[in-house]
Amino acid sequence: MFRTLSGKEVAATLTENLKTRADALKAKGIEPRLDILRVGANDSDLAYERGALKRAEKVGVNVVVHQLSEDISQAEMEAEIQSLNENKDVHGVLMFRPLPKSLDEKKLANMLDPNKDVDSMTDASITGVFTDDQKGFPPCTAEAAVAILKHYDIPLEGKKLVVIGRSLVIGKPVAMLLLKENATLTICHSRTKKEDMEKYCKDADIIVAAVGHANTVNRNHMRDGQCIIDVGINFNEEGKMVGDVNFDDASEFDLSITPVPGGVGAVTSTLLMKHLIEGAEKL
Question: Hey, CA dihedral for 65, 211, 130, 74, is it positive or negative?
Answer without folding.
Answer: negative
